[in-house]
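Researcher: Here's the sequence for the chain we discussed earlier.
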Amino acid sequence: MRLCFVEQRVGAYLTLRGQEMKSNLRQKTICILLAMFIITIGMPVSARGVQFVSPSYSLRVALGLDFSSASFAVSEGNYELIDYATQRIISTNPGTGTWVVAPKGAANLQLSYNGAAVEGLVNTHLVMRQKNREELNVFSFKNKRYRGDLLIQNINGKIQIINIVDVEKYLYGVVGAEMGIGAPDEAYKVQAVVSRTYALFYMENPQLNYDVSNTTAYQVYGGYDSELTSGARVKQAVDATKGQTIYYDNKIIQAFFHSNSGGYTESCENVWTSNMPYLRAVAVPQDAYAAQVPQNGDWPAVSFAWQKSYTRQELSAALGKWNAEHPSEAIKVGEIQDLVASRQAVDPVTKVYLPQETQSGRVTQLDFVGTSGVKSFFKDHIRSVLGLRSTLFSVCFDSTIKLLTAFGSEDTFNQTKELVAVNVDGYVSKLNGNNGNYYIQGADGVTTMPKFFNSLKIEGKGYGHGLGMSQWGAWGMAVSGMNYTTIIEHFYNQDKNDGRLKIISYQTAMNM
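Model: Thanks. This is the structure I predict for it:
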């Protein structure tokens, strides 16, 4: 049996989901039921029958936060508008006009319909609820349409807009927006199972007064409009995998995914801090498919291979902008002389660096070396500083040279102001004296090289953090004929025979 109800608290709206079979939730469930009983007894008899009850398989999706006001309207279907505190039905037919809601202090709302004020609201929450969930009911917010119910909240004087929607209907508006138009059916099925798992993990482990947002901070959700744009094949993929969710050791996984791994995903501890046994490095040569499909400008080829160039002045300006926006992480090392990239892997248990590189070749430490010190950034945070698509990259300066040592190995130098030449008599001299350049004799003749860089180029592969499923990799795998379960197993579990990874119905898992 599943219990689903709403508890009203100061400044928060919580849809509480419990399963009788989960022992760690039993005590909490009993306490909340008691609290709910007390709240219900205190309500007027006429109000008890219209409490807002969220369906057990629904998701709270934040469509917008921190608004000074917000407008919404019914686009299709039948709704009723309810003042949550008093359970007063404000409108049994919200119609096609425009409703505008704004905060009234820190703990109330003010509402108008087609410009006329609606009096008597006495709470921080307003609910526009579907009358019949079996029908198509759609509301509009910020020029987009969404299925499901609408919750408006005043949180500390700011309006929050929450869409409460059935998980499967939510996926109609996610899968196409995330995987893109024209993907193979099996790729859509992969995205449906992965996105369902991702959403249900946060539904089971809520961190805020909503489960997920509609942005890339979680996963892109375009609502009913995206559902129509994506077409019937996306809906068919969602329906064909209905309820299917990924579990590892009988626990729902955090099904992270990204656009393109650049040919190799990475183990979690080398990107973030946690060690997740189902997020391990795995080869994905099919990521190159992004460069083979018809291009829209330079997309999606640049999701697989990309580059970014800076002059010395442009790099200085970029770091100045970073310093202004991130004073606690400012790069104050004087004039930049070098960028040193390290690819050392991290021990998943001890978290210490190992004397070996990451399996994918991703950078785990980037040092900005200047005339007055060094500033280091680590793992996925490296991407933020220079706006890089991934941490799978190399840095090449116009001053970079490689010297052969006496032992036959190569040493790389990005700046050579301090290098000297020693002749057979032991005489030491600077390369080309105090000149800012030196000369290299090569197969194509003499080349001039600066001793201190004038420009640098960052060459990289992949787009995103590189953990879990690569969307372009899944697309390429599907084109090659792989089915969706095989693709999922490839990305989330390298050992196919240990039985720890399962793709099963969410409802089945809840009853295990």
